[in-house]
C-alpha cells in the first residue's frame, strides 16, 4: 500500500488496473481479483463517483458520514462524506482530500451538486 499512500501526498487517488483482463480494483492487491494475473499497474482515478450506501456515525462530538462510494472506474471506496447535510444513495460526489499529520492525505468525498 506504500505507493498508494505516497501518491496521496500529491492528491492522486490510484486505482489498480489489470493489464491482463482490463478490470480495475481497489484496494491494491498482489493479484487481479478477476483473472488472477499479477500484471497490475496503477492509474490515477478521475475523482468522480456516486454514493452506493452510507451510514451516519454518532460519537462524542460531531457525527460523521461513513460511505461506500462507487467510483466512475467501477471499484468501491470506503470513505467519508464531507459537508453533505443530507446524503442519499446515487448522489454524485467528487473527490476531496483531508490532510494527515505526516503529509499524506485521506481521500474523502463532497457533493457534486451545483457544479
Ligand atoms: Zn485481470
Automatic annotation (TrEMBL):
It comes from the Bacteria. Residues 5-40 form the ChsH2 rubredoxin-like zinc ribbon domain. Residues 43-98 form the ChsH2 C-terminal OB-fold domain. This is DUF35 domain-containing protein.
